[in-house]
Amino acid sequence: NAGVTQTPKFQVLKTGQSMTLQCAQDMNHNSMYWYRQDPGMGLRLIYYSASEGTTDKGEVPNGYNVSRLNKREFSLRLESAAPSQTSVYFCASRKWDTRTFGSGTRLTVV
Amino acid sequence: AQKITQTQPGMFVQEKEAVTLDCTYDTSDPSYGLFWYKQPSSGEMIFLIYQGSYDQQNATEGRYSLNFQKARKSANLVISASQLGDSAMYFCAMSYEPTSGTYKYIFGTGTRLKVLA
């Protein structure tokens, strides 16, 4: 099915560990995004990529890095996980004004 | 600064009744878009409806309609004939272009709707 695929769906990390969240879209969209969702705060933009080869910081980029590997894939990396990064992470791609979201990754940092 | 405000953290509605979820926004840009998303308990984000700032008519998509009042800067979502499957979190969002070539998209904090049988 066409859409945005995120892996993994769930992850538990220890403080200081690193990991990469994977995202791929097969809709040929140019723009891709990483959001985090926290209770009472809606979705906040971490990083985005307007096109292949470009990335830009969003609202809450600290503690994260991203890679736009190709047009399909946009990964989010936590180099040294902290408990404050416990959240639900969503990848999205853009067509015109709307976003198509992945199913989310629930990350817990202990 | 641009902002989206959803003042209702939670709401209840009886099945088959209509419900309005409030959303107000703040922007100085003349061109912007307003969106509603649904997030069921399974966690995915589902696009529901879109309203452009220059659209003359209120957007409708099936049982969803967007009550757009530009002067009041409100973009309320109306769900008619509520169904049990409408129980979910609902997010209002806004897109805008503060400078040429940049593109911003912000979300409200959400309203949790519970439909009662």
Would you mind describing this structure in some detail?
The complex is a heterodimer of chains A (110) and B (117). Chain A has strands at 4-7, 10-13, 19-25, 32-37, 43-49, 56-57, 64-68, 74-78, 87-95, 98-101, 105-109. In chain A, the strands form 2 sheets. In chain A, strands 2, 4, 5, 6, 9, 10 and 11 form a 7-stranded mixed sheet that branches. A 4-stranded antiparallel sheet of chain A has the order 1-3-8-7, with no helix packed on it. By secondary structure, chain A is mainly beta. Chain A has no helices and 11 strands. In chain A, strand 9 and strand 10 form a beta hairpin. Chain B is mainly beta. Chain B contains no helices and 12 strands. Chain B has strands at 3-5, 10-14, 19-21, 24-26, 32-39, 46-52, 60-61, 64-69, 74-79, 88-96, 104-107, 111-116. In chain B, the strands form 3 sheets. In chain B, strands 2, 5, 6, 10, 11 and 12 form a 6-stranded mixed sheet that branches. In chain B, a hairpin with a 4-residue loop joins strand 8 and strand 9 (74-79). Chain B starts with a strand and ends with a strand. In chain B, 33% of the residues are buried. At the A-B interface, strand 5, strand 9 and strand 10 of A face strand 5, strand 6, strand 10 and strand 11 of B.
Separation of the first and last Cα atoms of chain B: 41 Å
- Beta-strand segment tally of chain B: 12
Contiguous low-pLDDT stretches of chain A (5 residues minimum) are none
Helix percentage of chain A: under 10%
* Largest sheet composition of chain B: 6 strands, mixed
Radius of gyration of chain B equals 14 Å
H/E series of chain A, N to C? Answer: EEEEEEEEEEE
The overall pLDDT average of chain A reads: 92
Q: What structural class results from the helix and strand content of chain B?
A: mainly beta
Q: State the total count of DSSP E strands of chain A.
A: 11
Terminal Cα span of chain A: 34 Å
Query: In one word, what is the shape of chain B?
Result: globular
Count of individual helical segments of chain A = 0
